[in-house]
Amino acid sequence: MNPINRFFDSQRRHFEKGGRFETYYFVYENIESIFYPPPHVTTASPMVRDRLDVKRFMFLVVVALLPHYAFGVFNVGYQSHLASGLPPDLWPVVAKGLQVVVPMVVVTYAVGYFWEALFATVRKHEISEGLFVSCALFPLTLPPTQPLWQVALGISFGVVIGKEIFGGTGRNFLNPALTGRAFLYFAYPVQTSGDAVWTVLAAGRTAPVDAFTSATPLAVAAATETGSVPQAWVDAGYSTAKLFFGLYPDSIGASATFLCILGALFLITVGVADHRIILGDILGFLATAGLLNLVAGPGSSPYLHLSPLHHLLVGGAAFGIAYMTTDPVSAPAMPGARWVYGFLIGMLTVLMRVFNPAFPEGIGIAILFMNCFAPLLDEVQVKMRLKKRVPNVR
Q: Is residue 184 a contact partner of residue 142, using CB atoms and an 8 Å limit?
């Protein structure tokens, strides 16, 4: 037995029922679970042996998000230097990115942990592992200029209103990170949307340099009235490579499509994400955007002519598909329902982007909307299966 294990074993009695610190057992259990699996075992059948418990499930999602944080730190600093007319040297860029991103992450986890600990104390249960994933996702969806007090308010709304009032992880039907993000979008639109929020300017600068385009690709697409959207992107300096690698002003870590692809493949491989939802999302994007391309005429909006692949390439579409739609709590549990769930999210995202300029991103609202219908989709599939089986019973 190593020293760390001996230490936890020697301190456990103080936090278990009857111990001096019984009230704070959730803190002890939370820290111990970082190093070791839970000591409790099933004492009655059925018994399931599976290394992918809830903690490791959530840990793997956080691991998949680490490259997004590394990219976010670089891109925030890189865009800041470009907008401020500074040379984009690596270490100054990274230093600027860390200066912006780290405080947002610290505030998110500190406030989120406070609420989780408060509810765990009152309800006398352990801290949910889902908190760490929600707090890891939330900052990546925010613009880098978001005030820290709004970051605290957003994660508070996401944890309390999006999860805890329904009973905590496993009982909530909304994605907590997206709930907090949507709250900030509607409550503080000036600080959460528009062209000015996606780039942090250097001290002393009030406007970006003339050669810098601060509008996101989705904002450029929504504002294109003539010509083609891809050409408008090229004119704005957004090549296909930039769009794919996410090197443009946007949320902290959700713009890198190539990282989202790698993350989705990783999560599918380790059994965390369900491929049905992801493929359903993609099919929804392809079918809806393809149909709009077919019905669009010569006088139609250029956005109607935008190809399905371009819809998947820009904004947070790939990020939402890889990490948000696959949330095991707010998504359906039945296999067939997951196909429908993913397809409808893709469809709604494209429709909102094209026909409602108020929601240039679309996928966050589409996911929350379909979260509300996930239980219904499960219920429909269960009833369809029972309808087939009951007549055969004698």
A: yes
